[in-house]
């Protein structure tokens, strides 16, 4: 059994290869040769216990991910052989989840954003945001990143990472303002309970990638932004419609019907639903993370290490 720690996982992840693996996995999910275990959530007075997973019948592997979100958060992923029941590898730590989330965003970015997208407007400057921008920069030719965060130290660290590691111009902003209308891609990576960008600060043909909020009380995007979008997409409707405040609000308002929402299984097979009532050419993608994504990344890393 391999134990693959955070320190073993390179920061120079090849997201072009990873997105191909992820796309193949979602095609198998649509065809029925892969299966997804939806998130099971148990709340306590001190936090939330989450468990999810997936199985790939063709590769003969399965994975289970578990974590507790309380005073802090950490993760444990176990990779199994479905043919021998052997535990192939375990992944303690945050990095695999960070890569998984960024890979899902990279895949959605490649499908939904304009090919000539060059400017990212990023809200949140934590470890997830950094990996998200790293992944997106492999899918599009990014020339400038605007970033806003309430923590000045995180803001400047993010700016240095973008400039020094990615070789891209970075503009640190104390608040989100009308300049974000220049962004081809809007990325939100926060744990906010209220929307972090006003609808008027989003361009007409922008691609919006919302990955921070993951409970019914959290909201990063205004309901009107989702309602105006030409394409609304999620990694899993089952997950997001129950667990994310933005989608709950949009669906309950009636401005978006569940039948109009694309899942990854629609996106990867180019079976994309276009909303006729949209007011913009924008696309909105909400990712909460699903077990089949954790399986894909875990098996990819295991194959590289074994």
The largest beta-sheet arranges its strands as 9-8-7-10-11-13-12
Spatial extent as radius of gyration: 18 Å
Question: What is the helix/strand order?
Answer: EHEEEEEHEHEHEEEHEHHHEH
Structural class: alpha/beta
What is the fold named in CATH at topology level of the largest domain?
Rossmann fold
**Which shape, going by the Cα principal axes?**
globular
Note the gap between the termini.
Answer: 10 Å
List descriptors.
306 residues; 9 helices; single chain; alpha/beta; Rossmann fold; ornithine cyclodeaminase, domain 1; seven-stranded parallel β-sheet; six-stranded mixed β-sheet; 2 domains
Mind explaining what this structure looks like?
The chain has nine helices and 13 strands. With about 300 residues, it is α/β, with parallel strands linked by helices. The chain has two domains: about 1-95 and about 290-305, 2-Layer Sandwich (ornithine cyclodeaminase, domain 1); about 100-285, NAD(P)-binding Rossmann-like Domain (Rossmann fold). Strands 9-8-7-10-11-13-12 form a seven-stranded parallel beta sheet, covered by helices on one side. The protein has a six-stranded mixed beta sheet with strand order 1-6-5-4-3-2, with helices on one face. Helix 1 (about 15-30) crosses helix 2 (about 95-110) and helix 2 (about 95-110) packs across helix 9 (about 290-305). The N and C termini lie close together (about 10 Å). The relative contact order is 0.17. The model has no long low-confidence stretch (mean pLDDT about 95).
């Amino acid at each position: 059994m391999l134990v693959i720690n955070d320190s073993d996982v390179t920061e120079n992840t090849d997201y072009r290869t990873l997105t191909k693996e992820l796309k193949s996995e979602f095609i198998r999910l649509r065809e029925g040769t892969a299966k997804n275990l939806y998130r099971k959530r148990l709340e306590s007075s001190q936090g939330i216990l989450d468990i999810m997973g997936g199985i790939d019948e063709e590769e003969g592997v399965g994975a289970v991910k578990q974590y507790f979100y309380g005073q802090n958060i950490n993760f444990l992923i176990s990779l199994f052989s479905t043919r021998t029941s052997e535990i192939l590898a375990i992944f303690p730590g945050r990095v695999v989840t960070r890569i998984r989330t960024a890979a899902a965003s990279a895949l959605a970015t490649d499908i939904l954003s304009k090919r000539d997208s060059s400017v990212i407007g990023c809200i949140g400057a934590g470890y997830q945001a950094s990996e998200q921008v790293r992944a997106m920069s492999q899918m599009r030719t990014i020339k400038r990143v605007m970033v806003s965060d309430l923590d000045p130290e995180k803001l400047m660290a993010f700016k240095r990472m973008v400039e020094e590691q990615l070789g891209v111009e970075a503009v640190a902003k104390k608040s989100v303002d009308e300049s974000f209308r220049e962004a081809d891609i809007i990325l939100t990576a926060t744990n906010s309970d209220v929307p972090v960008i006003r609808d008027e600060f989003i361009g007409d043909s922008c691609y919006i990638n919302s990955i921070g909020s993951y409970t019914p009380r959290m909201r990063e995007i205004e309901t009107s932004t989702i309602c105006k979008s030409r394409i609304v997409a999620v990694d899993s409707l089952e997950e997001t419609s129950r667990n994310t405040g933005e989608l709950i609000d949009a669906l309950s308002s009636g401005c978006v019907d569940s039948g109009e929402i694309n899942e990854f299984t629609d996106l990867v097979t180019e079976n994309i639903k276009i909303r006729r009532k949209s007011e913009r050419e924008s696309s909105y993608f909400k990712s909460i993370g699903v077990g089949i994504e954790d399986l894909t990344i875990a098996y990819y890393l295991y194959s590289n290490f074994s």
